[in-house]
Design goal:
Blueprint (H helix, E strand, L loop, with lengths): L8 H5 L3 H7 L2 E7 L4 E6 L7 H21 L11 H9 L5 H10 L7 E4 L6 H10 L7 E6 L2 H14 L2 H4 L2 E5 L15 E7 L14 H14 E12 L7
Parallel strand pairs: 3-4, 3-6, 4-5, 6-7
Antiparallel strand pairs: 1-2, 1-7
Helix pairs in contact: 3-4, 4-5, 5-6
The structure holds S-adenosylmethionine (SAM).
Length: about 240
């Protein structure tokens, strides 16, 4: 996916090399195609030393300023409430997925249709369900994974965590995400499509997302997306399947 560069490379280039090496282990890319922009957040060292901590703090502040000024005013609310979770993430106290979930909260509304393109153990599916579920039962989470054990794991997490009524709002599919258009009913416009790339935690590390199928799935996601919708990617740069 093309990014129009709304991320703080100027800040990155001013950081010491050692810092950049440590930083470069995890990335996000969020895109709201209706307004044709995307942005990417990159993690700071998990174990920053005293000297790098101050650099990391400056980085967080500068990154947030850079995002704020780059994002169209109409979408400024995307970043609302993000400072704390971003700072926690930079210092290893929050997970990458928690940053993603915080952004989703600013986009997804009760009753929305959303897609989890890589449901894995179901933590993202559950977070999505909490955002869309209400008494009207109009919302839906379409969640998929290539692996049967991933779907079982997601199903079991949902059964333990939500009421049968809420559970009924999630549809699970054993499917490659390139085929996501086959499961979302025509006419449903999707508010969020989320990807969490890589392999199933606790599963077979050889079965992982691949860049070519991810690219095709992103194209499919863009077709399904409602105006103002969001494609969210948590990307691990530590191995090829996570990119
Ligand atoms: C990092 S895990 C996802 C974690 C998950 N979102 C969670 O909350 O636990 C990545 C998942 O993508 C799945 N996957 C890999 N290639 C896929 C594909 N082409 N289509 C759908 N899922 C795929 C893997 O089986 C794995 O379960």
């Amino acid at each position: 996916m093309a990014s129009n560069g709304v991320y703080p490379n100027s800040i990155v280039s001013s950081l010491p090399k050692r810092f950049i090496k440590l930083r470069n282990c995890l990335r996000f890319l969020f895109s709201a195609p209706s307004s044709n922009y995307s942005f990417k957040l990159q993690q700071k060292p998990r174990k920053a030393s005293m000297s790098t901590n101050s650099i990391a703090q400056e980085y967080v502040a500068a990154s947030m300023d850079s995002f704020r000024t780059s994002i169209p005013q109409s979408h400024g609310s995307l970043l609302s409430g993000l400072d704390d979770v971003m700072t926690g993430y930079m210092f290893g106290k929050k997970k990458a997925t928690e940053v993603a979930h915080s952004i989703w909260k600013n986009v997804v509304r009760k009753g929305d249709v959303v897609v989890d393109a890589t449901c894995g153990n179901g933590f993202d599916t559950l977070a999505m369900l909490k955002l869309i579920g209400d008494r009207t039962h109009k919302g839906r989470v379409y969640a998929m994974d290539l692996q049967k054990n991933a779907l079982e794991s997601t199903s079991s997490l949902l059964d333990q965590s939500v009421s049968p009524d809420e559970r009924g709002l999630v549809e699970l599919y054993a499917l490659c995400h390139t085929k996501m258009e086959e499961i979302v009913p025509q006419g449903d416009s999707v508010r969020l499509v989320a990807f969490n790339l890589g392999y199933l935690p606790g599963g077979d590390k050889r079965i992982k997302t691949q860049s070519e199928t991810t690219r095709l799935a992103l194209e499919a996601a863009a077709k399904l997306l409602a105006p103002g919708g969001l494609i969210s990617l948590v990307v691990y740069v530590g191995h090829s399947g996570g990119r």
